[in-house]
Amino acid sequence: MQHNVNWLQALLVLSLSVTLGWTVEVQRPRGVPLTKRQFYDEAKPFTCLDGSRTIPFDRVNDDYCDCKDGSDEPGTAACPNGSFHCTNAGYRPTFIPSSRINDGICDCCDGTDEYNSGASCQNTCKELGRKEREALQKLAEITKEGFLLKQQLIEEAKKGQQEKQSRLSELQDSRKGHEDKVEALRTVKETAEQPEKEAKERHLKAWEEHKAALRLEKEKAKMAEVFLELDDNADGFVDVSELQTHQELDPDGDGTLTDTEAQGLLGGAHKVDSTEFMNMWSNMKEKYVSEVCPPTPSSYDSSHDEQKDSTSDKDQERDLDKDPDSVYPEDDLDEDAAGEDDEDDDDDDDHQVSLLFCIATPFIQPHHIFLSQQYICVCVYQRQYKIFMYTLSTVSSVCERERWCLLCNAALLPFSFRALEKEISFDFGPSSEFAYLYSQCYELTTNEYIYRLCPFNRVSQKPKYGGSETSLGSWGSWSGPEDNKYSVMKYEHGMGCWQGPNRSTTVKLTCGKETAVVSTSEPSRCEYLMEFTTPAVCLEPPNIDTQVHDEF
Amino acid sequence: CPLVAAAAAMGALSLGWFALCLGVAVAVDRGNFKTCEQSAFCKRQRAMKAGQSPYRALLDTLELSDSRVTLQLINDNNKVHLLLELYRLQGNMTRVKINELKPLKPRFEVPDVLIADPPTEPLSVVSRDENGVVLSLGDEARRLIVSAQPFRLDIVEGPQVLLSLNSRGLLAFEHLRPRKDTEDDNQPGLWEETFKSHTDSKPNGPTSISLDFSLPGVEHVYGIPEHADNLKLKSTDGGDPYRLYNLDVFQYELYNPMALYGAVPVLLSHNAQRTMGIFWFNAAETWVDISSNTAGKTVFGKMLDYVQGASETPQTDIRWISESGIIDVFIMLGPKPADVFTQYASLTGTQSFPPLSALAYHQCRWNYNDQEDVRAVNQGFDEHDIPCDFIWLDIEHTDGKRYFTWDPSKFPKPLEMLQDLTDKRRKMVAIVDPHIKVDSGYKIHSELRSKNLYVKNKDGADYEGWCWPGNAGYPDFIRPDTRAWWASMFAYDQYEGSTENLYTWNDMNEPSVFNGPEVTMHKDAVHGAWEHRDLHNLYGFYVQMATAEGLIQRSEGKERPFVLTRAFFAGSQRYGAVWTGDNAAEWDHLKISIPMCLNLNLVGISFCGADVGGFFKSPSTELLVRWYQAGAYQPFFRAHAHMDTPRREPWLFGPENTALIREAILQRYALLPYWYQLFYHAYLTGQPIMRPLWVEYPGDASTFAMDDQYLLGRDLLVHPVTEEGARGITAYLPGQGEVWYDVHTFQKHNGAQNLYIPVTISSIPVFQHGGSIIPKKLRIRRSSSCMENDPYTFIVALSPQRTAEGELYIDDGHTFSYRTEKKFIHRRLTFANNTLTSRSDALFHFTLEISSE
């Protein structure tokens, strides 16, 4: 990361200064860096570096502070704001606050800061320099390899992104179609209900009379709805072939609705418009079964079909049991598939009892409960329950029931859309290099706990020897410093602490060949810190550009 | 540390506790602590109203010896005889003792608190008749008048009554008696008492004592810490008395008379003419009632009285009630505040002279998690260029709350960690609490058990209670052999992983017993011949005494100890520092830290501080900065925080706040020479370090109730900013004809005025007295010991007469050689005629900066 680059650059500077240090021994007052040497000329009075004052040169380093900026005492502790330059030949030169001169503690590796304190300082610069060079070399290797890996990750992410994008547009199309349908239904329903309400208010006395008319209206509305349903190509006409999708209308009960029979139902016409259809409706309404529910809108099928490796229901259960071995990508679409299984299992019952189903959608685990006279649709969305409950008494006919069913599905549909949209909209880094972490989990076992980081999802902690899992936070945001945003991840709103905040976790990312959690700690109560290595944060090594390109 | 986390720490062992503790999470649960009404003896005693005393002095029993007068008293209601002893003590003090003439068995008298038998001076009978006796208390027409019927004592000086005892007839002495199952005996609370689920068997029956004191001409009384209340004590009419009973109070409330962690039964009275003190020498549970004939009156009412001439003399009445022991009172007659401090110090000793580094900045947290954490915090101070002398470890550093041990996985190499600190010339404090885990594999426990040194329960078995480690025993520190053994545990070969830069913190020494009555030890627990009831308030005093002794012994008597305690009693000043316990990150808690420490300083305990930042809850950055600024000018300067609060090392709040906190700490370090000199004085003379203004300006009535500003020594006036969002403060600068200098700007201000000063977030209003010289060190380094050879800078603030005086005290900063070998430099500095003179022996390099406008 940024830091590492600095080190690499420092290495270059270092070798330069080392050479200078050995060849040219320049005389200068104690604590003055070479770069400022020219300001300290023994032959002239000294002017404070801020220009504030000029003093005789013998007052430089006389252990009394004359300059406001501390520049007259580079080699003593006299000025509160002064600094001392350690040459540190063999290692990095550095400045220390002048309060550390002769304080009995060796701060410069060359020991030059303790010239009058009695402290005996060893010169450790060469040793430090050697160690640093080794460390930098190692780091350079890691950076190099990590950066190669990162390029691959970026390639993969590109492909993945494209796939998801196309899936999203598919889903978007089907959603549009679905929404239109729902909207049409809603309009029909509302137009049907609106007069009902108004009539009730205005014509209380004439209620009975109107009731019949209203029933007719209602019938019409239903009919209109059926018309829309049947009108598959939405050309404003129901034709024979469209009618033939409803074999249950077969008048002779031989199981086939022939062209002729269908035409008969349509009053002999090949196709009818909605006004004409009204007249024909009475012929069919006894037998008609709505197509809206339960068949699933095709969009769902298309989405989960692509997930060949979807996690099975059993996996999901195991996951809930907190089996530490199960890596459980909480992939939206996997859960979708799981829900789909549910639906299939229940299919048989469905036709007998007209059970309402919610179609499983991403992040949603559906549970269908049939209680003699009630439809309950429970959708679990990220641990929050959405409950749709309808009793039979409020759902007077099969069709109305099915309309509810459709609305229910419509209510859920956006989730599947949103989930994919969410994944696509995740900030996986400037080149999506972090995309590979999505739906993965990484663990670290310590003395007491097993920590698990599922990037872009959640962090948790579980006692090693039994006990329940504790959430240490859900994905919050990238929160590195402005110039290095992708170096820190923040997970928030974990389980609450007694009298304290909700648990949260800061994940610090460093360059590594492996993707792994390397350490965890709890520096403050309920605020966790994780160190995580990944090639995705490896920066391009500046001095091995050519090699990188060679290998590409 | 607070009670509640205990429950969390003990986990499954104490689910019941956890539930209970959750209930008290918001603030103090008053229901856990007794009111006077719920304390049988207090209720009994308080039911007795002022009136004719049933006690009569039997003048013919009077015996006069060189050192004392004895006299019998009889209670005409029950014919029980008491023995009254009167002493005239050196230094203008009178001691009054009352005990049963022939108690069924001895009654407890407090040992080990007085530094010696107070030297007496001869009393003489001035006159005597059938109504009473007049005794001379030396010259100046000071007399002690004993009136026979009803019995009362008056101390007079010339025509003026200084104070009277039993003038309201509230002397009551419940004599020891065998239990008879009469109706009287079966009154509730006499032979048994139940509070919540705890029953106190009272094998000795009722034993309480009470006595009243009247202070004519007095409107201001102070002292009797520890209470979270203002400096000036309030009237207790219509409410509970101030209570003295060392308790671990979880999330204590402010501005009420509830008992807290420590007790010093010393009350000071002050008016423009005279300052006096009453030392009620009793270590049992004690309640103090205060009433005043002017307390209820408004300023306007008082003026009206004055104008109409209808005013009676103001008077404050005090009544002490204790559960057991004897009546033993030292009356310190002043007359000046400094005289009272000297008198009290002659009885209980002076402030211990701490190592210099203990006066610097302390960084604490419950808890620094492991060695790596300590290393990072140590380094953090260097990275942010903030000085720090001590890093502290709370209970989590131990192996399962077994004190004297280290958690093997978090602190596997304590010697290495301590060496890291030594390398930076820093030090460490580790906690050692007096509750000892009952665990046969734990050396400390098994030795205590085999040597039979634990406190016993009423049935004679080792007393056990719940505390941090779970089931715990409590060493009987009242026994000298227990203390000697405890002290020996601090030897380097006993306390593994300890080094000479490791010091000690005694917490939970009230003692705290999570499942005990009022979260403390059962009163019927047994210490040898005595019940815990008799000496409860002494327990913490002894723990700190034994610990300090241990630190001295481990260095073979060479090094000064540093021990912080939460519980304390009269005399605790001799063993180290005290802090105000588990406060909270609230502005009011910041404000109350001043009067709490002032009251402690008035009764000898100068080394006082509050947790900077507040222990419970999380401070706003403004509050944290203000607390650092205030704490930098209080004697004990330590930041501390509860485990459940976010981290708050000084550099965690952005560069601006880091700079503000650094500046506050730098100001502390710059003033260390002055602090050190103040402590040397406190050690030598018993004069307080933090002083209410009236201590130096006893005639200035406007200062009598002031507790938002104070003096450090005589020469610095501190008015910390304790208001949120403050734009300015009004400081009162005392002294007609005197001048004060703003220490930051050197601006001169006249005395005897209220001065409004605009403030910003960086302001710490401090003023130096004109006519003083204050030594500072302006080269501030990473710890105080790095600064030991640095030059001094004298800040000379001239008086209107263009003179100034000051002093300089220097020694090695950490050994007893200042005492044993007189190795120190103590110089008086004088500035006059534009010349600074001192008999400086040129050992030190002086930098001179003269500020005179």
From TrEMBL, chain A:
<dbReference type="InterPro" id="IPR039794">
    <property type="entry name" value="Gtb1-like"/>
</dbReference>
<dbReference type="InterPro" id="IPR018247">
    <property type="entry name" value="EF_Hand_1_Ca_BS"/>
</dbReference>
<dbReference type="InterPro" id="IPR011992">
    <property type="entry name" value="EF-hand-dom_pair"/>
</dbReference>
<feature type="domain" description="MRH">
    <location>
        <begin position="439"/>
        <end position="540"/>
    </location>
</feature>
<feature type="region of interest" description="Disordered">
    <location>
        <begin position="291"/>
        <end position="349"/>
    </location>
</feature>
<dbReference type="GO" id="GO:0001889">
    <property type="term" value="P:liver development"/>
</dbReference>
<dbReference type="Pfam" id="PF12999">
    <property type="entry name" value="PRKCSH-like"/>
</dbReference>
<dbReference type="InterPro" id="IPR002172">
    <property type="entry name" value="LDrepeatLR_classA_rpt"/>
</dbReference>
<dbReference type="InterPro" id="IPR028146">
    <property type="entry name" value="PRKCSH_N"/>
</dbReference>
<keyword id="KW-0106">Calcium</keyword>
<keyword id="KW-0677">Repeat</keyword>
<dbReference type="InterPro" id="IPR009011">
    <property type="entry name" value="Man6P_isomerase_rcpt-bd_dom_sf"/>
</dbReference>
<feature type="domain" description="EF-hand">
    <location>
        <begin position="218"/>
        <end position="253"/>
    </location>
</feature>
<feature type="compositionally biased region" description="Acidic residues">
    <location>
        <begin position="328"/>
        <end position="349"/>
    </location>
</feature>
<keyword id="KW-1015">Disulfide bond</keyword>
<keyword id="KW-0732">Signal</keyword>
<protein>
    <recommendedName>
        <fullName>Glucosidase 2 subunit beta</fullName>
    </recommendedName>
</protein>
<keyword id="KW-0325">Glycoprotein</keyword>
<keyword id="KW-0479">Metal-binding</keyword>
<feature type="compositionally biased region" description="Basic and acidic residues">
    <location>
        <begin position="302"/>
        <end position="325"/>
    </location>
</feature>
<feature type="region of interest" description="Disordered">
    <location>
        <begin position="158"/>
        <end position="181"/>
    </location>
</feature>
<keyword id="KW-0256">Endoplasmic reticulum</keyword>
UniProtKB/TrEMBL annotation, chain B:
<dbReference type="InterPro" id="IPR013780">
    <property type="entry name" value="Glyco_hydro_b"/>
</dbReference>
<dbReference type="GO" id="GO:0005975">
    <property type="term" value="P:carbohydrate metabolic process"/>
</dbReference>
<dbReference type="InterPro" id="IPR011013">
    <property type="entry name" value="Gal_mutarotase_sf_dom"/>
</dbReference>
<dbReference type="InterPro" id="IPR025887">
    <property type="entry name" value="Glyco_hydro_31_N_dom"/>
</dbReference>
<keyword id="KW-0378">Hydrolase</keyword>
<dbReference type="GO" id="GO:0006491">
    <property type="term" value="P:N-glycan processing"/>
</dbReference>
<comment type="similarity">
    <text>Belongs to the glycosyl hydrolase 31 family.</text>
</comment>
<dbReference type="Pfam" id="PF21365">
    <property type="entry name" value="Glyco_hydro_31_3rd"/>
</dbReference>
<keyword id="KW-0732">Signal</keyword>
<dbReference type="GO" id="GO:0033919">
    <property type="term" value="F:glucan 1,3-alpha-glucosidase activity"/>
</dbReference>
<feature type="domain" description="Glycoside hydrolase family 31 TIM barrel">
    <location>
        <begin position="352"/>
        <end position="678"/>
    </location>
</feature>
<feature type="signal peptide">
    <location>
        <begin position="1"/>
        <end position="27"/>
    </location>
</feature>
<dbReference type="Pfam" id="PF13802">
    <property type="entry name" value="Gal_mutarotas_2"/>
</dbReference>
<dbReference type="GO" id="GO:0030246">
    <property type="term" value="F:carbohydrate binding"/>
</dbReference>
<dbReference type="InterPro" id="IPR048395">
    <property type="entry name" value="Glyco_hydro_31_C"/>
</dbReference>
<dbReference type="GO" id="GO:0017177">
    <property type="term" value="C:glucosidase II complex"/>
</dbReference>
<dbReference type="Pfam" id="PF01055">
    <property type="entry name" value="Glyco_hydro_31_2nd"/>
</dbReference>
<dbReference type="InterPro" id="IPR017853">
    <property type="entry name" value="GH"/>
</dbReference>
<keyword id="KW-0326">Glycosidase</keyword>
<feature type="domain" description="Glycosyl hydrolase family 31 C-terminal">
    <location>
        <begin position="686"/>
        <end position="774"/>
    </location>
</feature>
<protein>
    <submittedName>
        <fullName>Glucosidase II alpha subunit</fullName>
    </submittedName>
</protein>
<dbReference type="InterPro" id="IPR000322">
    <property type="entry name" value="Glyco_hydro_31_TIM"/>
</dbReference>
